[in-house]
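Quick one:
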Amino acid sequence: MTPEALRRLLEQVAATAARVGELPDEAEAGPPAGPIFRPVDGRTAGVVADWVTPVAQRWAPELDLEPLELGRVLAKRLVDHDSIAAVEVAPSGLLSLTLANADRSAIIDEVLEHEATYGLPPGQRVPVVGLDGHRADLPAWLGSDPALRPAQLAHARLHRLIRNARAAGVAIRPSDRREDLGHVAERLLLVALADFPQRVDRHAGDRAQHVRAVGDLAARADAWDQPIRPMSVDERVTGIHGARLALAAAAAIVLRNGLTRLGAPAPERM
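Output:
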């Protein structure tokens, strides 16, 4: 679920609350413009949510409400939707949202469907070569920005995992249970994939911030070490292997597109 989809849901619940008198009529116009959702800080001990939003703090003065009051109304309406598993409201009015597993993992299909353009500015595309495609047109990585080396290494690592999984018989299938991608590292990576276009668009023209965004995504990918293929001869291929293969493919695509946006190569072997 992307930040744009979350905004649309928030607009919907606010409009509903306004129509039934839980919020002022002005709430039907929607929340303030600009990004209002960001991923949780994965460094926070015990964190369980996926997204946080200060929308109640920013919006409450316009509606003549206290942030906590507005936050409670929005939280009550948000948890009525199947895509939202839980909402917590801090005393400051800050909302923390936990998505349903299936809605969190839906970003995989969006990335795979738009792999040539996901995370890129309008009009820019990259060639689609498939999971095992060889990019002979890529320049040598040795001449690229050293600050991007960790992201290039993470991209190559993902392609190694993909090659090994496919060699072991793992494939991406519609029947794969992507809602089982519930490990903390998987959740953080899925949310990072969903947030990436918003993050780089917010810092358009700021190369340092783009490099940081790609590096942070690479760190998320490197922290994810769940097996995407059977690890012993007695283990058979299951749906979770296919789901993790799809996640690896999506992460590789977003890293590649992020590196392309910076004018850097994305080697599949290093």
